[in-house]
Amino acid sequence: MNLAARHVCVKDVMKSDFAYIDGKATIYEALRMMKQRKTSVLVVQRRNEDDEYGLLLVSDIARKVLARDRSPKRVNVYEVMVKPAVYVDKEMDIRYCSRLFARFSLVRALVVDGKEVLGTISPNSLVLDGLFGLVE
């Protein structure tokens, strides 16, 4: 089967259920939200129109809070988050998105339409939902 003949966009495999958090929130508040939402990533809100979105990942919390024996109630999201968050256009082909992830060792990116966040994308979604769907 010729996979190049099929076109699957990032919007077709992204996770559209995501939550925003304020950068001033504590890591404790973020963890509570992550547990409630059953997610390992939160989108950090922009402070104003000229600002960029951030991403808060469980893996960053593990490295920057847990491994350093810091109190989650005393550390703010802005101290741990990745900012600016990498984002991809909703129409990007999953093959190009996968190459971007590999080239820059990404584990998550935002999916946007202009400046509006539509969801998040991960290598798992690209492979399990995207590639698997191509070969079925």
UniProtKB/TrEMBL annotation:
CBS domain ranges (all copies): 14-73
Keywords carried by this UniProt record: CBS domain
UniProt keyword annotation of Hydrolase present: no
Protein known as: CBS domain-containing protein
The organism of origin for this protein: Sedimenticola thiotaurini
Keyword flag Signal: no
InterPro entries: CBS_dom, CBS_dom_sf, Diverse_CBS-Domain
